[in-house]
Amino acid sequence: MAVKSSVLPGRILLAFVAAYILLPVAATLLYSLATVWRSEMLPEGYTLSHWAKSFIDQRFVSVLLRTLGLAVVVSFVTLALLLPAVWWQRVRNPKIGIALQMLAAVPFALPTLIIGLGLLTLTGDYLPQAQGTVWLLGLGHVALAFPFAYWALDNAMAAANVRALSEAASTCGASPFATLIRVILPNVGPGIAMAGIMAFGTSFNELVLTQLLVGSRYETVQLYALNMLKGADADYNLLAVMTVINFTITLVLSIAMVSLNGRTANASLPKKAKS
C-alpha cells in the first residue's frame, strides 16, 4: 500500500503534464479537421478537406520538403564532421577535447541572434556572395546542432570504450580508416543515431537564425508559420495542419531519442547489473 501511495502522486503529476502538453495539440488537430468552429466547445462538423488542400498546395509542400531536406543534410554534415573528431579525441589526442567542448558551449553561451550576426559579419568581410544562401544557413544550423550531437557521440564512444577497441583493431593490422568504419561505427550505432536525430530536430525547428540569414528567400516550416500568422489573409486551417505535422515529427524524434538513450544506457551496464 505504501508503494502504491508513493506512486500515485507521480502519476497524477504526469497526467497533468500530459494534459498541459497534449490539450493544445488536440485543439489544433480539431481545428485542422473542423468545418466551422465558432463559440461551441467542439466544432460543428469535421472534414479532411483542409488536409487534402494542404498537400496539393505548392507552397505548403515545398516548405515541408525544403525543411526536411535541409534537416537531413545538416544531420549528415554534422555527423561527418564530428565522428572522426570525437574518435580522434578519444583514441589519439585527448587534448583536442578541450577545444571541442569549448565549441560545444558556444551555442549556449551566446544567443542565436548573436551567432547569426557573427556569421553575417564574417561572410560580409570575407565571402559576401555566401550571404542569403542556403549554404550559409546550413552552416549556421550545423553550429547550433554541434553541442547536442557532440555530447551524444562522446558519451556513446565513452560507453563503448573505443580506445580499447581501436587498440585491438590496430594490433590486428587495421588502418585508422578501417578501424573507424568497421569497428567503431557498429559499436556506437545508437549514439550516432541519437546525434543525427538531435541535429535533425535542431535544424527542423530553428527560426531565429533562418529568419536572420535567409529570410523569405528560403522559407522553412517555422518561417511559413510566422509569415502565415502575420498575413492579413492567412489560412489558419492550413497553419493548423502544418502545426500538427510539426508536432508529430518532433514527437517521433523525441520518442526515438528516449528509446536510443535507453539502449545506450543498457548497453553500458555490466552484465551482472543487467541480470
TrEMBL record:
UniProt KW Transcription keyword: no
PROSITE patterns referenced in this protein's UniProt entry, alphabetically: ABC_TM1 (PS50928)
Top-rank lineage group of the source organism: Bacteria
Keywords in alphabetical order: Cell inner membrane, Cell membrane, Membrane, Transmembrane, Transmembrane helix, Transport
Entries under Pfam families matching the protein: BPD_transp_1 (PF00528)
Keyword ATP-binding recorded: no
Bilayer topology term: Multi-pass membrane protein
Similarity comment: Belongs to the binding-protein-dependent transport system permease family.
Name of the protein in question: ABC transporter permease subunit
Transmembrane segments: 12-34, 63-88, 100-122, 134-153, 191-215, 236-260
Predominant cellular place of this UniProt entry's protein: membrane
Residues in ABC transmembrane type-1 domain copies: 64-257
Location within or outside the cell: Cell inner membrane; Cell membrane
